[in-house]
Amino acid sequence: MGSPGPRCPVSEQRARWELKRSRTARELLETERRYQEQLALVVQYFLCILRAKGTLRPAELQAVFGPWESIHIASQELLLHLEAGNWGAGLERFCHHLEFYTRFAANQEQSRATLQKQLRKSKCFRRFVQLQEGRPEFGGLRLVDLLPLPLQRLQQYENLVVALAENTGPDNPDYPQLTKATQKLSEAIQQVGAIGREQENGRQLHRIQTLLSGRQAKGLTKGRWFLRQGWLLVVPPKGEPKPRMFFLFSDVLLMAKPRSVLHVLYGGTFACQALYPMAQCRLQRIFGHSGEAGGGLLSLSFPQEKLLLMSTNQESLSRWYHSLTLAIRYALHLP
């Protein structure tokens, strides 16, 4: 018997790429079919029937579901391309519809709030949702479980298309289109991430605004980015340290004093005592450096005042030092 021929590393590598590519393509196709089915369930059993029955007004229907139907149509079109093996052309064309996903992300807060409101106030709508969710087609999934699907799928698209592009050779006709699709998906993910961060910041600002009371508290959080809150001890020149609640934003540090829970109007809230501009802050850690036992002390110097803030927890102090440093950089527009 003759000896086997010499191995070809290049051919073996190409074979591995092709195997990974085929596996990724199959996963993309199979998951797109399942995604398409779930999108169709919402269209068929919720959107179409609600629109026909008039259970929700058009504005309320749009608020809850956003551009769901447009996303459904885009998925149908993509699935046809994938089933025909047109990976590059199909994904490149699909990327023209990514604006529906960013619009869907921007509508997410309103969708959640409107759905909760209608479930709470409309017995007819609440009963309808329960009946539809009980259908065997939903497999125990609730409407609230299905609504985040498009944004979850967007992340899956990026992961799968990146893997597909990485295992497609430059000489393959799909390669330029897959590379372009990867870039477009990455940009969409970044936009959706920015929208999510802005929405979360809005929730935090609203929460903090409800904690603050009194005339001085009005509008204090508007237009700001929240970074951190927590209790710290204010060390005065004389006397005992006093606990105060601090709210740190990207441009200011707010010091607040707790009101008595017995207060007629503002029980359990905080009264704003001072607002410190972080652009004018000089920060120094007096003691409590990493590795030292116990808590520590931070010095914050402003043109008109100097604050000494103490924490008995080393880890908490380090987090505050990091956040304050970050706020100063934000306020000074430093990279």
Explain how this protein is built.
It is a single chain. The chain is α+β, with helices and mostly antiparallel strands and 335 residues long. It contains 11 helices and 8 strands. Strands 1-5-4-3-2-8-7-6 form an 8-stranded mixed β-sheet. α1 packs antiparallel against α3. The longest helix is centred in the first third of the chain and has 45 residues. The mean pLDDT is 91.
The N- and C-terminal alpha carbons lie at a distance of 69 Å
Arrangement of strands in the largest sheet: 1-5-4-3-2-8-7-6
Q: What is the C-alpha radius of gyration, as a whole number of Å?
A: 28 Å
Poorly predicted tracts of residues: none
How many distinct helices? 11
Can I get a quick summary?
The chain is an alpha+beta fold. The protein has 11 helices and 8 strands.
Map the helices and strands.
Layout: H1 9-53, H2 58-65, H3 68-83, H4 87-94, H5 98-106, H6 108-121, H7 123-133, H8 143-146, H9 149-166, H10 175-211, E1 212-213, E2 226-234, E3 242-249, E4 252-258, E5 270-277, E6 282-287, E7 296-301, E8 306-311, H11 314-331
Parallel strand pairs: 1-5
Antiparallel strand pairs: 2-3, 2-8, 3-4, 4-5, 6-7, 7-8
Helix pairs in contact: 1-3, 1-9, 2-6, 3-4, 4-10, 5-10, 6-7, 9-10
Features of this protein?
single chain, 335 residues, alpha+beta, eight-stranded mixed β-sheet, 11 helices, 16% strand, flat
